[in-house]
Amino acid sequence: MTRLMAWAPLVLLGFVAGRVQDDGLAARRRVRALAESGHLSEAEDAARRGGAAVLVPLGEVLALTGRLAAADSVFRIAVERSVPDWRNAVASRAELAARRGNAGVARQLALTLASAYERDGARWTADDRVAAGRAYVVLGRDDAQGLRNALRAFDAAVAADSSLVEARIRLGDLFLDKYNAPDARTSYTEALRLSPRQPRALLGMARVLAFQGSPDATQGVRASLSANPSLAPAQALLAQLHLDAEQYDSAAVSAGRALAADSSAADAWAMLGATAWLRDDSAGFARARAGAARVNPRPSDFYSEVAEAVARHRRYAEAEQFGREAVALDSLSSRALGGLGINELRLGHIEAGSAHLTRAFARDPFHIWYKNTLDLLDEMKTFRTVATRRFRIVAPAAEADLLALYLGPLLEEAYDSLAARYEYRPPTPIRIELYRRHADFSVRTVGLAGLGALGVSFGTVLVMDAPSARSPGEFNWGSTAWHELTHTFTLGRSAHRVPRWFSEGLSVLEERRARPAWGAGPTPEFLAAFKAGRLLPLTRLNDGFVRPSYPAELGFSYYQASLVCEMIEGRWGRAALVSMLAGYRDGLDTRGVFTGVLHQTPEALAVLFDAWLRQKFAGPLTHVAAWDGKGPATGEFVTALASAETLVEQKHPAEARAAFERAEAMFPMYIGPDAPALGLARLALERNDKPAAVAALARFTALDESALEANRREASLRQDLGDWAGAASALQRTLWIFPYDPAAHARLAEVAERLSDPARALRERRAVVALAPADLLEARY
Length: 781
Description:
Strand content: under 5%
Helix content: 55-70%
Strand order of the largest sheet: 1-2-3-5-4
CATH topology of the domain at 385-622: Neutral Protease, domain 2
CATH architecture of the domain at 385-622: Orthogonal Bundle
Distance between the termini: 93 Å
Largest sheet: 5 strands, mixed
Low-confidence stretches: 1-22
Oligomer: single chain
Structural class: mainly alpha
Number of strands: 5
Mean pLDDT: 93
């Protein structure tokens, strides 16, 4: 007890011999309430005045403020004296030992408590059952059965006391740690129903939102900090959110606030370390690593956390290296093994990644990401690989031959084009994986189903939906492949340091350069949002990709970023884009790149962009009303479209035609399902004016990369008119939207023969065979 004398004389005076009677329930509740609201100094003072009955809350306060050794000493004395709540003191000692890297001590303490619970836990209080659950969580690091037992113990605590909030928070934490967001959300919701201002429950809900990529995550974190400004894990999560948005200064500030509250907060040290690493601050990284090592001399989790952070910044090779450091420090850590395996898979190291994931899953069979990925790897053993000069196309066996017929030449063409554009040649072969189920692509990317993207680039490994993963006409798989390959060049040219907005903007711009109609175009909503000042400023454009504040903002950000890149190239030339990538490679931030390459501050560039955008879309902007963010866009253009459709319904074709023409003149780039060009094509066909119908359809298909039915109709009309070259172009466009129609391939083959193009005809006949038609003999013939 001499270790306590220097700092806790009032506590020692409160000790009594033998078992202390539970006469301090109100005092314990008061101390914990003060701690939960962030009044840690007041909580500590109250605990020191409360005597032996509040030893456990005192230890909890000391732990919250980073004094782990002192906290452990208080918990040990609480156990020796059998003070009220002493079982939670045992659980706390086990958790502290685990945090400090004393795995053997942690396991022994947890095993002692768990064994006692298995003997007579039915007679334990609800609080003591929570303590048992915490002990099982510690044991679960080495034994999956521990996690099963933890769930049972927490459930038993709730059954014993349905008003107990702590058990529900612990359940939520356990679920979320295993990537089970739905059950975590349920547990936190139940906790908040009982205690709407509970800071850790609010934080748990914010973690769920962050995990799901919700724009409400930051607001959720701030709600938890409003309830407890000293909640270090909340500040650490806020640092992560800032870091994900590439707001490095804000990330460092939040991490620093977490450490000011709790100098032992390993996640905060990791966020500080990741921030320093991403800013090329080697000294700052060393300080953060040393801070983590003061808590745990073998800080495996520090490296795992840093690996996850840098991977979210698309620096996958560095993430792999940090993963190796984590495994070297703790070769039994499922988190370290799993994180290393995931990043190895991202880099195309399939065998090594599978081996590490298998080891991780053996130790943690409840981790959904590990399970889903291993299941997917099993399925991928049935895939076929088709090699081209510089690419390896990996796809389901039934589709590989068909897709490679088109994708191989396209990717080779894209490589040459992009290499010239960006003065960089990525190492080959480049691996591209295509999945016939979107859920599989999503698992390959983030471990769970539900990712909204079409494709992802990890550098020299690309993954994307196969065209069979989506409904016909939903997306263009050719433009998607070109988009993702562009990332390979911009990531490589910048040493994976290009900010998300610039990389995405260049990819969309390159889609538009690759083929007519490819890439995003303006919508009334985009122009209306610009007119209303709702587009993000250039300095915050990353926010629209990481956590958009309203549903349409993500799509707006892609298009806006591409327009910024288009303006830069138009004003300063292609070389400026290359120099900007080089600037990011050399460690400059966006302000430094803008001033160093373009000689413009971000604020000045924003003024130029505003003027450029107003000039580019001067006509449509006058016919679209400013958007309030609710419902569809309004304005003269929308009214004109509605009027035209009404005239069609009223059987006034001449007036309808004039109305459609007025609407098209107002917004000629519009490609919605009610586009004026489509209305004009319908009216032309009604009067059997095929040339006019073709002209109208061509204006539409020249703008919409996914216009499957319009291209089909255009091809048929061009064939009727004897325009074989035009028909071939329209049919070719349909294949980049939906390549599984044998009739389309057969038609294109016939058209190619008329055009004396045997190479194209041969490709189309091969495509028909690859589709395994019912009459295979005829197809081969």
